[in-house]
Amino acid sequence: MSAPHPILRITRDILAIYWELARIIIPIALLARILTEIGAIHALAPYLSGFMGTFGLPPELAIAWLTALLVGIWAGVTVVFTMMPPGALTEADMTVFAVLILFAHALPVEQRIIQKAGPGIVASTLIRLAGGMIFALILHRIFEATGWLATPINPLWLPDGEPTGWLAFIIGLGKTLLSMFVILFVLTFAIEGLKYVGAMATVDRALSPFFRLVGIGREAASFTTIGMLLGVAFGGGLLIREARRGAIPPRQIFLSCVFMGLAHGIIEDTIVVVAAGADLVSVLFGRLVFAAVATALIGLSLAATSDTTFYRHLFRARPDATSP
User: Which of the two residues, 319 and 140, has the higher pLDDT score?
Assistant: First the structure.
């Protein structure tokens, strides 16, 4: 039996990846919506209000933080401005809060995608949460000691009262899934095209010095870049395919997912929080530097970790190519 045409093979791979992502996103998005509707976030928020003070933030932001963790950045930022007037927050407040939700948001969906690529969900989730808290605390101490960014925020964007019912949710989810398919389709064919003409090797060579410092090898660099620029769903989705092919060593997959977890979606996510009043230098360049340093340190620790410990606590067994 002859091998399928390359275009058909790539299309089949895209559909398999998309189906994998849709099976994760749809039920978890519905569950997150239901938990929001029944008031689970509001019920938990009082227990975390005092925790916000660790970062110099008002207790009211606990609800916004939980919303971002469960649903996503857009929802979290929207809740900020429904809980508090813009003049009640300084640029330092918004920057620290932005860091917390940039590192860890939409965890049920994104962490399930990362888990499918191989890393253990507990370890990768804790790394994202801890990374955001550590960097947020560093920024809070700097702002507190220097008085930087002490002026009230002047957001470029405020919630505009768009419908928030179930119909709007379903329409929004449909648009998200459609745009994800289009982007995934274009990305996959673009990568294959670059490989065919040899341009991917040039891109990898250009990125390799940075990723080599972080500890990520050339074989995972391109997928890490996609995740860094566009988000976990795209970088992680492509990594799922490569993991099943056995094309990337498990430890490289783990480090790639660590870096993506700490610095992903830096285009859209950065625009959202900066428009809400956060400091661009802190949430973009500061975040990238912190993510690089943290990933490099984790990579050094990983090098000293035995295979037994790695596969028991950090990485599940490599998925079989025939698994659903």
Answer: 140
- The number of CA neighbours under 13 Å toward the Cβ of 247 is 15
| Reduced DSSP (H G I as helix, E B as strand, rest coil) percent helix, strand, coil of the chain, to 5 | 75, 0, 20
Burial of 156 (0-12, 13-18, 19+ CB in 10 A): exposed
Instruction: Give CA–CA dist 176/209, Å, rounded.
Output: 34
Which of 141, 115, 36, 107 is closest to 264 using CA atoms?
A: 107
What is the distance between the alpha carbons of residues 52 and 67, in angstroms, rounded to a whole number? 14
CA distance 44 to 263: 27
Tokens in use for 136?
A: 């947020």
What mean pLDDT is reported for the chain? 84
Q: Which residues contact 204 (CB under 8 A, 6 or more apart)?
A: 218, 221, 222
- Supply the pTM of this predicted model: 0.82
Residue 92 half-sphere exposure toward CB, CA atoms < 13 A: 19
